[in-house]
Amino acid sequence: MAFKEKSAWVILLAYLVGSLTFTWSLLEGVSQGKSPSPVDFAGFTIALIVLLTVGHIIIAAVSPGTANTPEDEREKVFTLRAKALSGQFLASGVVLGLLFFITTNNTAALFYVVMYALILSEIVNAGYQILLHRRG
Amino acid sequence: MADTLPVGNRVRAMRESHGAMSQSDLGKAVGVTRQTIAAIEQRRYAPSLETAFRIANLFDTEIGEVFFWDPQ
């Protein structure tokens, strides 16, 4: 497995674990009548950075020979194709959030729709890169 | 599985005739990963013109001897 594919797996797993944990705590707080706190979001961001950093350190330690090699031409094509697809998810989420904001004037909803669009776009980016690597 | 591309090649045969060079060694020599060489050999990826020239140059031959049009 190429280092770039391992990296995409780390990103995918970190975003899935981080976002699911964050969503769980968010829903738990809301069910108890608490409003979402910026501290929760900061915690999610820090946890995500830690997961991504530790994950990349581990895969670099496991495959030191390929860790520092730059993307080759095929991997660059995969990156561009995945970014094009994930960009559409992000743009759709932002437009959805803005439409929601215009109709409801709810700033918190705008924040969370855009944030989840960003998370989803990163998951799509990593997932599609993995798929392209697997398919060749 | 991705469709086979219409660009055929003799990379594997040439690699094996050059001292059983590994995919990894060839990849390093032309600046791509082992996985990319494997994808080229299996016709799942058509290399850039530059990489095709680098491979032909490494095997000391013309590009047409390594890569050819083969729509099947």
Description:
The complex is a heterodimer of chains A (136) and B (72). Chain A is an all-alpha fold. Chain A has one domain. Chain A contains five helices and no strands. Chain A has helices at 3-31, 38-62, 64-67, 73-104, 107-135. In chain A, helix 1 packs antiparallel against helix 2 and helix 1 runs antiparallel to helix 5. Chain A is flat. Chain B is mostly helical and 72 residues long. Chain B has a single domain, classed as Orthogonal Bundle (434 Repressor (Amino-terminal Domain)), CATH 1.10.260.40. Chain B contains five helices and two strands; from the N terminus they run E-H-H-H-H-H-E. Chain B has a two-stranded antiparallel ribbon. In chain B, helix 2 (23-30) crosses helix 3 (34-41). The longest helix of chain B has 10 residues, at 49-58. Chain B is globular. Chain B starts with 6 loop residues before the first strand and ends with a strand.
Distance between the termini of chain B: 17 Å
SSE string of chain A, helices as H and strands as E: HHHHH
Give the CA-based shape of chain B: globular
Question: What does the oligomeric state look like here?
Answer: heterodimer
Helix content bin of chain B: 40-55%
The CATH C-level name of chain B is Mainly Alpha
The counted number of beta strands of chain A is: 0
User: What is the approximate shape of chain A?
Assistant: flat
Name its key features.
heterodimer; A: 136 residues; mainly alpha; flat; B: 72 residues; 434 Repressor (Amino-terminal Domain); two-stranded antiparallel ribbon; 2 strands
Summarize the structure.
The complex is a heterodimer of chains A (136) and B (72). Chain A is mainly alpha-helical and 136 residues long.
Reconstruct the topology from this structure:
The complex is a heterodimer of chains A (136) and B (72).
Chain A: H1 3-31, H2 38-62, H3 64-67, H4 73-104, H5 107-135
Helix pairs in contact in A: 1-2, 1-5, 4-5
Chain B: E1 7-9, H1 11-17, H2 23-30, H3 34-41, H4 49-58, H5 63-66, E2 67-69
Antiparallel strand pairs in B: 1-2
Helix pairs in contact in B: 2-3
